[in-house]
Automatic annotation (TrEMBL):
Keywords: DNA-binding, Transcription, Transcription regulation. Residues 9-77 form the HTH gntR-type domain. The lineage of its organism: Bacteria, Bacillati, Actinomycetota, Actinomycetes, Micrococcales. This is FadR family transcriptional regulator.
Amino acid sequence: MTLSTSHRQPLADEVTAKLRQMIHSGEWPLDQRIPAEPELMQGLGVSRGTLREAIRALAHSGMLEVRRGDGTYVRATSEMSGAARRMYQDHSDEHILEVRLGLDTQAARLAARNATADDVAALRAVLATREVAWNAGDVEGWARADWHFHARVAQATGNPLLHELYVSFGDVFHQDLLKQQRKGRLDGLTYEGHGALVDAIEAHDADAAVASVNQNLNTCAEWLRA
C-alpha cells in the first residue's frame, strides 16, 4: 500500500487515486468498512489531514460514506456508480424506469446485432440461475441474477462504454428490484424482457429485442402505478 515518492501531483490526489484503486479492485468490498485511520496512515505513510482530504473527496463522489462513530464504508466501486447511487435517492421510481427504458432498448438493439453464440449461452445460463433462486425463495440471489442478466446483455452489445455506463447503475437497479419484490405481487420469472429478449438476440432480430424490453418495462410501469 506504500505510495511512490513522485511529486508530480499533490499528495492528497495521489492518496485519493490509491484509495480509489483499492476500491475498484475489490480489495475493499462493497458495503464493507475500510481500515481505521491509524492503519491507513501507517500503511500509506501520510498524515491524518492528507488522508481525511482523500476520504472526503471519495465521499463526495459517492464511493465512500463516512459514518461518525462507526467508520467509513465503501458504497460504490466507481465515481460513476457513486453518482448513480446519489441520484437514485433524489428521483422517483418512474424516473428510474424511464432511464432504464433508454438504456435497455439501446442495449437490446445492439446486442441483437452483435451478440455471439457464447453471449447467448451465457445469458441463458444466468436466466437458469435466476429461476433457481426465485423458486428457492432466495430473493437476494434472484435480484442479483436478474441484474447480472441485464448487465450481460449490455456486455453483448460490444460497446464497452455502454456496458460501463450500465454497470454503473448496478446498485441502483438491484435495490429497485428488491423494493419491487417487497411490495408483493411481483412475477419474478417474467418471460418478457428476459427469455423473449434472449430469443430475439439469438435470432439477431433487433425489432423483436426492443419490443420485448418495451413490453417488460411497460408492465413494470403499470405495476408501479397500481
